[in-house]
Amino acid sequence: MLGSIYAMVGVAMTLSIGILRFLNFSIPALFMIGGMVTWALVRVGVPWPIAALAALAAGAAVALIVEAFTWRWMRRAGPFIPLVSSMAFLILFEHLAVVKWGSDLQTIPQLFGAGVDWRIGALVISIPQLAGLVISVVMVALLSLALAKTRLGRGLRTIAEDSDTALLLGVDIGRIVPLVFMISGLFAALAGILFALNYRQVDPFMGEALGLKGISAMVVGGMGNVWGAIVGGMIIGLVEVLSIDFFGADFVDIAVYGLLLIILIVRPSGLFGGAEIGVRA
User: Fold this and answer.
1) pTM, two decimal places
2) What is the mean pLDDT of residues 7-32?
3) Which fold has domain 2-266?
């Protein structure tokens, strides 16, 4: 289900904008890295669970590189400089992937066999896609629990409310902010891995369209609300499926972004706006 993929990307962006007030445009590149690294390792015979773990590690490592050269060095330069530099990282990583693997669409071999679907009449439920949905919900539940119950979570919420106050309270921002980037990178890379394993196709520019849908999921659910990102992703995925069934594939983007505009007009804060990371108990 693409909705769970959109939700994971939306959660990655929600962490960044909800805690740091910074829209990290490199997240689509981290999504791409998760998918491309998985494909590259599976292609040379590495078992897919090991390939997925390596892709997660790659996503986290690249996210830390982005943090070092966007947030840590440039956050004092002006409000838009980290945003622009993160966009530069997106373009850089995409073209590095083109240099390494080419720009063609690559396919992953069938890994789970043909008998892994449930059929209920005319309804077909893909077990790998259902597993991806369950993984998404479990990951967000664990993240919400960590934000609410752990010392790290209290530090993150304090930074989200006011970074200057967090410094006065002794919160080590220099240690915690890289963790925000790393967790966002893990969510984005995991989304890329699930996409690659379920839909069996990757390319260096696969993150761009998914990134826009991830931003839409974040906005629809309510910026700063991780559960809102999950709900927003599911709504967008459902709208895509229904628009294809009733109007055809050409109508998908019209339906999705039309819904986004309607929600912004009717409820600019999103469906669950107000329950942000920084103010949630």
Assistant:
1) 0.87
2) 87
3) ABC transporter involved in vitamin B12 uptake, BtuC (1.10.3470)
